[in-house]
Every structure is written in C-alpha cells, then in structure tokens.
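Much of our argument rests on the idea that a fold can be written as discrete symbols. The record that follows shows the chain in one-letter code together with its fold in token form.
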Amino acid sequence: MSTESTMNMTPAEPDRELIMETVEKAALGTKGVSRMIPRLTETITESISWPGAKSRGIRLSESGRNLTADLYLSVIYGYNIPQVSWDAQTRVREACMSRCGVHLKEINIHVQGVDMPGETEASEGEQEERIEKHEQN
C-alpha cells in the first residue's frame, strides 16, 4: 500500500497539518483572540489515537471537494465579539488561500469564553511592549 493511498490525498492537495497550522496562526494573530480552546472530544480522541498530538481547537471537515473549518476560541474581554469573529474569518480565509492554496467554503467561529487581559499569556498591550523592546535591542 502506498503512502499516497493511506493518506487519501493526491500530490496536489495540501497537507492537512499545514492547513491546521495556518488556521491556528491566522486565528491567534487576530486582534482580540486570546487563545484556541480544544474541544473535550478532540483532546480525548487525539490522546488515544495519536499520543503527543496537539489539540488545537480547530476542526476541519470535508464534504466532497468543500473544506470547512470550525474554530473554537476565547476572546479578550472588552473586544467586540462579532468584529473579532469577522476579522478571524477574514485572516484565516486569506492565510489559507495564500499559504496553502486552499479555499475554505465555511469558517465557523465558536466563541467558547472571554478572558480577562491578565488571564492569558500576555495582554495585547504587554505583547506590543515586548515586541517594541525586542525591536529596540
């Protein structure tokens, strides 16, 4: 059995892992998104079937030739949730098209929570300060 048939992909199709990475980076790069939230079923399934796999809070599903992305994320308190969702959809769509050459038919945003600015790794202001300090050095 060839590798190609086990992965059920033709050479022209982009790697699913590349698409997942692209979606994750684009979503996390959206102003107002604090983090991705893995679904419980995703965490359990991946730990059983693929030990060491990263649960990302992203589900890709395929129907025929159409690819749909469901993103499960948390938004920073004080941001306009509909605007953050719209911006995340736009960033993900553009990133997938430019980096992977993939058009996502649907990008569904599921806001699973709201984080206070200090609850995540760093608030937006702290992230900007770190970037500025890094650029000065």
